[in-house]
Structures
1.
Amino acid sequence: MLVLRSTRMVFPEAERPAALHIENGIIERIVDYASEDPTGARLFNAGDLAVSPGLVDTHVHINEPGRTTWEGFDTATRAAAAGGVTTLVDMPLNSVPATTTVAALQAKREAAQAQCHVDVAFWGGVVPGNAGELDALVDAGVRGFKCFLVPSGVEEFASVDEKDLREALPVVARRNVPLLVHAESRRVIAECGLRVTDSNPKTNPRSAVRDPQSYAAYLASRPPEAEVEAIQLMVRLAAEYGAHIHIVHVSSAEGVETIAAARAAAVPITAETCPHYLMFAAEEIVDGATDFKCAPPIRASSHRDALWHGLGRGVLDLIATDHSPSPPELKRPGDVGDFMTAWGGIASLELSLAATWTGLRAFGASARQAQSAMSVARAAISASSDETSELTDERSTLPPLCWLARWLSAAPAELAGLGARKGQIAAGFDADLVVWNPDVEGVVDAATLHQRHKLTPYAGRSLAGTVVTTFSRGERVWDKHRLGRAYGGRLL
Ligand SMILES: [Zn+2]
């Protein structure tokens, strides 16, 4: 037996001193901090370090097999362990083949076999014409599906339209799994694309923003309207089919409001945002800084605030990284800062805990103020909607670390159907834990990150929250800057 003790154990509803008795990788029981240890038990005293549930990241592009030079299972799960992520769910695209058939899932599992340091699960893909594969993919173990309403960036993973969705959604509803949707409208983006590439000032008064290095031009090419139109389509279909739709990487205030309205009408829709939308703002992104390119784009700081309020109101359920690395030559093509041709994706798997915590602290200026920021959100929403105010009332007194655990661990575990054993410090759950210091700040040295390519917009940023030890099913998978248990991750 292992006894793990901390004065700051983060439970779903409270942060308090406690000790965990861990046997066979499972939290067997939770006892008083001062209780006597069973004879023969191994001891791990975390002292005043926080012990949170290991992070569950439901939005990770590992790219292996097929684009292993971009990222792979070994490096990605190493980065995960270093960042306190104990379970990740791999996206069906950017690997070749894409996970749209059972044979492709098999290829993915074979590539992952014996290469993972933390536990890994898989999403399948919905693409035009593969509705007949979906049942078999669920039978083979995918936790749900992902689709795109706009071009995905890789040719082997085609986007879907309403007709394709109508073929897939009956299966999604019947199998009771979520469909994750990249929600931007192809129509709106095509229109905006014309506007920003038309340099004739007579037909395009906004032609001044057509410079490919201009962040403003990139931002204008993917406006909030694109997000709203796509979410509205998914809300309609979710209501019609009774299928669980999950909107990935919500980036705008308007997106949050569209989801809030749907939830108030009891439509089965959930949503996530990402650390980079909660941390950065368009105002600070200089022209040519393609390290910040992602889709949808990082918007003005008013949107960032709206996303935090969306989390506080329970309109956004969770935070996932959308870890999507590429080789530097694709992220900074020709080194000329061209937003139109640079790869859209931000690699932050290892930094999600620190980035989110730092963002929350900045939003509230301190842990105490973070709580009052939640009360501000509560006051704002209780004026407009009864349904969500109830939810917020119940959670508004939660300590900030409990909010983090909810957004980064419990809610994503639920999304992936792993909520009965992952994402919480509770008896009977896997002993997946992160021991960390929320109070120590460090500057991100990109060269020390464990992802395959080190390029990240977080480089040089000061982030609060350093991971000391990560436990995966009771074993130290990461300890004091080094890999502990290697290659012990399971495919879920
Ligand atoms: Zn993604």
2.
Amino acid sequence: MNATDQNAVFDVEAIRREFPILGETVYGKPLVFLDNAASAQKPRAVIDAMVKTMETGYANVHRGLHYMANVATEGFEQARETVREFLNAESSDEIVFTRNATEAYNLVADCFGRMPGPHGIGEGDEIILSIMEHHSNIVPWHFLRERKGAVIKWVPVDEDGNFLFEEFEKLFSPRTKMVAITQMSNALGTITPMQDIIRVAHAHGVPVLVDGAQSAVHMNVDVRALDADFFVFTGHKVYGPTGIGVLYGKSEWLERLPPFLGGGEMINEVTTDSVTYNVPPHRFEAGTPAIIEAIGLGAALRFMMDLGRDRIVAHEAMLRDYAHERLREMNSLRIIGQAKEKGAIVSFEMKGAHAHDVATVIDRHGVAVRAGTHCAMPLLTRYNVTSTCRASFALYNTCDEVDKLVDALRKAETLFA
Ligand SMILES: Cc1ncc(COP(=O)(O)O)c(C=O)c1O
């Protein structure tokens, strides 16, 4: 059976066979890969698309006076169109390829910090973030705080990790210039009410940047239905390669933003004493882009769309519920983050044990989880913890793997708890 046949049952075993690495063993045990929020594994379709590009269709893009340049340019621009379809953006001109999600936040923050006019961010202007943000959607705004005197305001979460909407609404003032908030927390799994966040921000005339690094993987995202001004995600978490990320920006915003990095591709004309800039998205893509990686990303998104994003969401919801049920059986664990709306990410700590030690012990049983701050230090401070273990699920994980996680944790429990 074809693993991407949407009419078929979600045949997770057939899907797993599409991911060569899942056949690997570690320390003689089958690999149980539950570190997907950090980076996901790659299906054959992505590997093949990238190898095929290098073997049969590679040259530099957009300078095409020869056959291969045209083949590569077509592949690269087709990938942009696939991203447009994946996000349901209006135009592929709204899709900017970046190095990763991190570069995209830096681009938006830096450009807003230099943009003339009422939307530019300067001294005393305010940016609203949530306490759940990943450092990549915090530090670029800290740069504006340090360099321009901007002010960051934080939306809190409650003990369960729910986004406190009423507190969010109170943070607006006439100086609010940007709302930059995650649609799904990488550390807690919390899903934020993004549609309402955007509605309220727009009522104040404020644009919204959505951190979609996790939501693009685990939810069925539609930037037009959301009315997002900016939406960011990263290739390696959506089963694509590293080195490629996406900034979606509404045309009206991208057209207004000044350039970010300077170099080839982003200009119209350069003289010894002047320069004019290209239109979006090329204005923001200085230098040779990640051609092979963009094509790999296109293949990854096609793989997800062929599989059926609603079916992926349903499978992961089942895994989330099963993982919570099984982990709650263990008295030694404290689950951090039990929001009403949450995706298939479970953070926890084990009584009496450091997260790193727990992760190291269960690794010996073939189970890969992440331990640490998850690049969300303000959030961990909120919960008064210095690190947690995090099991994060992907479309190829199974209930049997949840059981293996629990078995391995039971072994760790005998050592520490
Ligand atoms: C919620 C969230 N935002 C942003 C990022 C940054 O992604 P990248 O490191 O690919 O730029 C991550 C990665 O962990 C993330 O989980």
